[in-house]
Amino acid sequence: MGEFELIRNFFAAAPCAQTGEGVVLGIGDDCALLAVPPGEQLAISTDTLVVGVHFPEACDPFLLGQRALAVAASDLAAMGATPLAFTLALTLPDVDPDWLQAFAHGLNLMAQSCSLSLVGGDTTRGPLSLTMTVFGRVPAGQALTRSGARPGDLLCVGGPLGDAAGALPLVLNQRSAEASIAHALLAQYWSPQPQLALGLALRGKATAALDISDGLLADCGHIALASGVRVVVDRDALPLSAPLTTFLGLEAARNAALSGGDDYVLAFTLPASQLAGLLAAGFSVHVVGRVVAGQGVALIDGAGQDVTPSTRGYQHFRETP
Amino acid sequence: MGEFELIRNFFAAAPCAQTGEGVVLGIGDDCALLAVPPGEQLAISTDTLVVGVHFPEACDPFLLGQRALAVAASDLAAMGATPLAFTLALTLPDVDPDWLQAFAHGLNLMAQSCSLSLVGGDTTRGPLSLTMTVFGRVPAGQALTRSGARPGDLLCVGGPLGDAAGALPLVLNQRSAEASIAHALLAQYWSPQPQLALGLALRGKATAALDISDGLLADCGHIALASGVRVVVDRDALPLSAPLTTFLGLEAARNAALSGGDDYVLAFTLPASQLAGLLAAGFSVHVVGRVVAGQGVALIDGAGQDVTPSTRGYQHFRETP
């Protein structure tokens, strides 16, 4: 048995690979089999993380395992889907048992916290990268797409923005910060919590939703385009954490929130009448703008003045040719 | 819009990305949505191909696109699943429009030939690799697993074996061959035809099935282990193509068939009473052995003599540290 077959057996024995709800057949055959309840549909999303592009080579494998699955699961939250399962395609330059153990530990913790079962994948030799495909279920017609935003809707987000982008200089060892600040920001970068419960609560309420990966402005652009509306973001209403504003100052913190990316917080539109119910249910929902007729995205300040920047959006930390 | 976003739009506009049967929502949102008919289950398989490990750097992108999807779809055939959809995670060192166009063309042809719709994925920068995840549907309880082989069953394969392994020295430009031989062998390597119709026909008939990727002996080992039986392979009954035996000679052709891998031909076990129906339906089915009580895999010659080799199984063409 080759090293890579041993790794497959290692993952097959992981706690998160033990059969979960909806998993008819897990790792070990030509295909996994999932059961989808009558009246429900299967939601699917795929994310690839490449060393040197999405994470630094020296990063902690425990944190990498956590983060990779969290990023993928966040797409299920954005769709209002109930998590079912995931596959892991892992490409490794060599077989390092300590690395694998730590990676699997982080993966397991996030899988269990998200109720996701590992049902298959592939393990190959090559430059380090991971492709996660996640599966969820959602009642037919109730998935949260990007295309239903209507003029008059509020634009909301599910929590503070910019922390992960603010953490990037810490991740890359380009800056240091006081321990409590570093801890708070790095936690958002390495262990984002997919807002799965919020996604479920938004079914039948939100008119459009996504998870913020490219930065609020760029992602609002996706909603504006898919829905055929204009999204107006209020710069002065952005929820910013105290660690972020302390670390970066207000202006840079706002920029991190608007254009930093990697938040994996939900952004969504909904009629104003739906807001009270979400707040009463205990969700942290912040109104950060509104939907109007038109197209594109505009940024205004608290006085209603247009302050739209000329460029925006997320770049991976080293996405250069 | 960045180069990689342009690529995503390029794939979203591909013919195979236009909505197919069972595809409720395709590329462009946080998740794709698939509908699974009541009483059916979803079959899922993931395969990664890495440059320098699974294919040479200089390979034709058209052929790579074809082959990558065929290899993945073959797992659906092995499960007896009806193809539905696939996702593509493509990691590219740079953006080469000619390369992408040719790759997408090959991908499209195979997708259409397999009735698979492209519903999502990810495109990132990094060393060239592809991860395909394929989805099919199968009536509950009718999937062909590896675990049902019983003593007394026949061992069968769905076509000639060894051609793809025989093609490897041609793929790597280590040898040359007469044009008609090269053409025949390379076609099996670059454009394996997933045996989807055979897989469907085996539902309710085969007791175990898989597609041969690691070589017949190694893959029979998987059936033996999962089913708790011994699989006896008859070396003299192996179906070998004329181009292969001409190119390699009989002994090396047999070795390619037994241990070469990359065939993507179905191997399956079934009661002898089921054979006539498959042959009458026009399927190319070859009896190459039988299932007995015990464990492991044995190789015999036509006289019943044990000729089991001491080592077996597939190595990627350059899977070295």
How is this structure best described in words?
Two copies of one chain form a homodimer. Chain A is an alpha+beta fold and 321 residues long. Chain A folds into two domains: 3-139, 60s Ribosomal Protein L30, Chain: A (2-Layer Sandwich); 154-300, Phosphoribosyl-aminoimidazole Synthetase, Chain A, domain 2, CATH 3.90.650.10. Chain A has ten helices and twelve strands. Chain A has helices spanning 3-12, 61-79, 97-114, 163-171, 179-190, 196-202, 216-227, 242-248, 250-259, 275-280; strands at 23-25, 32-35, 40-50, 82-92, 117-125, 129-139, 154-157, 208-211, 230-234, 266-270, 286-292, 296-300. A six-stranded mixed beta sheet of chain A has the order 8-10-7-11-9-12. Chain A has a four-stranded mixed beta sheet with strand order 3-6-4-5. In chain A, strand 1 and strand 2 (32-35) form a beta hairpin. In chain A, helix 4 (163-171) packs across helix 5 (179-190) and helix 5 (179-190) packs across helix 8 (242-248). Chain A is globular, with a radius of gyration of 20 Å. The relative contact order of chain A is 0.16. Residues 312-321 of chain A have low confidence and may be disordered. Strand 2 of chain A pairs antiparallel with strand 3 of chain B.
